[in-house]
Each structure stands twice: as C-alpha cells, then as structure tokens.
Amino acid sequence: MILTGKEIEKEVNARKITIDPFKTSHLTTNSYDLTLGDILLKYKEKILDPKKNNKYKEITIPKKGFVLRKGSFHLGCSREKIGSDAYVPIIHARSGIARLGLFIHVTADLIDIGSHGVITFQLFATLPVKIYPGMELAQVSFWQPKGEIVLYSGKYQDSVGPKTSLSYLGNNK
User: Which long-range contacts (CB under 8 A, 24 or more apart) does 46-50 make?
Assistant: First the structure.
C-alpha cells in the first residue's frame, strides 16, 4: 500500500517518516519531491575497482548552474535527509528531468527500513544538460511493509552528502 501525499505529511508530523527539511509545496498526490544538493562527486580514475576506495574530486554546483557534458557521470545527493522505521521509501527520478536527457539512478531505489540519511543520485547525461542546486530532481514514495521489520544498520547509515561506492568494505548490513 502506497501512502498519499496527505498521508505522508501526517506521518512526517507524527515522526514516523523523516523528511528534513520538509516543505508542504513538495508534496504530490502520492510522493514527495526531492531536491539536488550543492555538491557533486566525479571519479578521477580511468578504471574503477570495487575492491578499493576510488579517488574522486568534489565539485560545488554554482547557483548559476553547472553543465553536465554528454556521457558524463557524477554523483549528487538530495538536500533532504529521509528515512523511516515504519515505511519503505522508494526513490524515483522525475520524468521531466529524464526527458531532458539526464538519467537519474538511485544507488538502490528501494531504501531499507531504518535507513536514514541523504539520498545519493547517480547522474548520467545522455545530452549536455544544466543542473542547479535545489532543483527538483527525484521523488520519494512510502510503502507499508508486511511482516516483521528488521531495521537497516549498514555502511551507508546517516549519509551526509553524496557517497561513493563503499563496496570495498564488504557487505555489513
């Protein structure tokens, strides 16, 4: 069962869902719009190795915008910290942004119950596209689980800012 926008707001007020900062203007019929943070990460290495901590550079997105070149890959994040110990958040890209040639993939669109933090976005530009800090980039919906809840306690818990792959640390849920 998916929560409606009004139900999301009710559960935020009841503290069963975390969305911080929360703006009622970002509520939709059955989701909440997430905005792009100010920082991008770009890997520096030619070949990425999942068994090591790959080098990257940090880019601050200017208020006037930043052009992602065709074929470029960057990591960004939501300004909002989200999470829930009662519902399953699912992240979706906004279709209007995809129609501009910017593919937004979320590390895992199905967020674990109990995971709290900002969302890392994987941004792949199929065409040159300009992005801005604070632009609405994705949306989150919340789903009612069925069965025993086991809360997430993995390596990405309490994420702040975009996160590169931590696969070299192994699976530590």
Answer: 48/165, 49/168, 50/165, 50/167, 50/168
